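Batch manifest, entry 17 of 40.
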Amino acid sequence: MEEEFETRAWDEAPDAEPLEEDEALSPADIQSNCLWQFSSTDFIMEPGIFSTLKRYFQAGGNPEQVIEMLSENYQAVAQMANLMAEWLILAGNSITTPLHQRGSTS
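Output type: structure tokens
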């Protein structure tokens, strides 16, 4: 079951209106701001990733640089927390037992 994807340039997106603050910035400033965000830990998991990518590419950003930055800064913090929680549940811990009561001998 293959899905069909519509090919569209970033500047043809229906909501491609530049942000008001972007109108006052140069493309280099927009790229710099976006790159700063891309360099933060696990930014690829943030809800605003697509709008930031769109801003960056509309300002003439380099796709290879984005891929490199996002992959280098991906540490999977939230995913590791979920994995640890699953392991604790599999080990017999209850998700409703408060932490201060776990493992107590009383």
